[in-house]
Amino acid sequence: xxxxxxxxxxxxxxxxxxxxxxxxxxxxxxxxxxxxxxxxxxxxxxxxxxxxxxxxxxxxxxxxxxxxxxxxxxxxxxxxxxxxxxxxxxxxxxxxxxxxxxxxxxxxxxxxxxxxxxxxxxxxxxxxxxxxxxxxxxxxxxxxxxxxxxxxxxxxxxxxxxxxxxxxxxxxxxxxxxxxxxxxxxxxxxxxxxxxxxxxxxxxxxxxxxxxxxxxxxxxxxxxxxxxxxxxxxxxxxxxxxxxxxxxxxxxxxxxxxxxxxxxxxxxxxxxxxxxxxxxxxxxxxxxxxxxxxxxxxxxxxxxxxxxxxxxxxxxxxxxxxxxxxxxxxxxxxxxxxxxxxxxxxxxxxxxxxxxxxxxxxxxxxxxxxxxxxxxxxxxxxxxxxxxxxxxxxxxxxxxxxxxxxxxxxxxxxxxxxxxxxxxxxxxxxxxxxxxxxxxxxxxxxxxxxxxxxxxxxxxxxxxxxxxxxxxxxxxxxxxxxxxxxxxxxxxxxxxxxxxxxxxxxxxxxxxxxxxxxxxxxxxxxxxxxxxxxxxxxxxxxxxxxxxxxxxxxxxxxxxxxxxxxxxxxxxxxxxxxxxxxxxxxxxxxxxxxxxxxxxxxxxxxxxxxxxxx
Length: 614
Hints:
By secondary structure, the protein is of the alpha+beta class. It has 4 domains: about 1-165 and about 595-610, Triger factor/SurA peptide-binding fold; about 185-215 and about 470-555, no CATH class; about 225-235 and about 360-460; about 265-350, Chitinase A, domain 3, CATH 3.10.50. The chain is about 50% helix and about 20% strand. A 4-stranded antiparallel beta sheet has the order 16-3-18-17. A 4-stranded antiparallel beta sheet has the order 12-5-14-13. Helix 4 (about 80-100) packs across helix 7 (about 140-160). The protein starts with a helix and ends with a helix.
């Protein structure tokens, strides 16, 4: 039963994309008689379609930026306008289909629906029962769904007719391949401070003072808020808590499953309609005529459809568990009976059983109980502390009359040490203003704090004597960098004049590489710099950090047409260029079509939908 339920849930998940695009869920009652935000030709853009498209776009942004991205922010950046434009384009295409009398036939519609994984039964084939059940569970009717699908298929037909594959220009693709596939070999010499003919001299007091004066921004303390705080954290309270061994032993017994985990196997299950089908598949696998991946594809499935993850023996049927856990190395076993019928099982890895004894777990359990007790102790004091603050108690009073401890910090934006490591404290400190009444702050670990802004210390240059060591380190790094640049330039000139590059150190010969390659431990711009050299024998130099580099171009090789990597690259470029031309062609047609189609948008309806957007 568990497995069958999982199949149904997966079917709903796989249908989600279809439902989202075709109007199957989240239909909102906007009230009143206005049901659309406008018309495009003979097509209406419904309120529900507009809201769903907005929500889909917002969900996409949130997936990239996090849940903190709000509907208000989305409207501020014009998301609603771009969504409306997309819907207008879609409606214009549908209107053009109607005008031209274009529609896909029943056979094409049937084939498209039957190919959807969401409507396949346990045997991997289209199931009418699954089709009807899945639509019903998502609030769709068969006629309504098929009408939407027919419109989608017809629109696709028009797009394909307009943007049939346009072959990428050969000269363009050849140029891209020649650029990206070119390989260059070169010799690289790295030099450090120890390779300088004359070590960098110690700086004089005048030079250090000049460096300090020229880099005042590096030695200026930013604006800081001088903040006094009173805090009580679980760590502070936990020091007062003691836990006896009997309590720990009882807790260990209660949570033993966390410390004793059985052996698990990484398993994939491929189910067949009959025992004979499963036997034939196993025979093909054993003979080497089919791989497991090919068997999965033959069933019309993807690898994630057969992946069971890590399972214990009890998580499989009796026969399957015995067979899978009898394997001592990765392999395929079966056919054996499973909850869904005859199946082959591939075991990909063994996760050994793990046992953590009481002595090993004791400290962890004790700390957990102490923290839990400490959080409760803090919670018990919150009301009384709030009352004291409301009664005018100062932070110093709290430190005297409660378990809270007082402290002070110089807070600047970006601080994350000490109390500033707590986001809630950090936010409160950033927002604190002169004269604010201290309020209790709940910390993420169950602790509490309250703070007061004492004063703001303006940005100020730190006196020289306080940063003398940093000044000297900065001067030395700058002087060394200049010396390395000069030395690398000098070596490059000498090699160009006929000197052996090996006489200046231990150069390395780099194998031919493309523009996209990188050499670990070297400047990011090194390889691009090599590709800027005009001919073999040319030299260049650069410096980064505590090293200087001299590079000499040794060889230039055009990409070989029969190289598998080059062939793949050519195919990729050709496909990308073709896709780009196709998309540009469609965009130009769609723009012209919308311009020639009567578009009427109801601003009040748009505002009503936007108001329900969240």
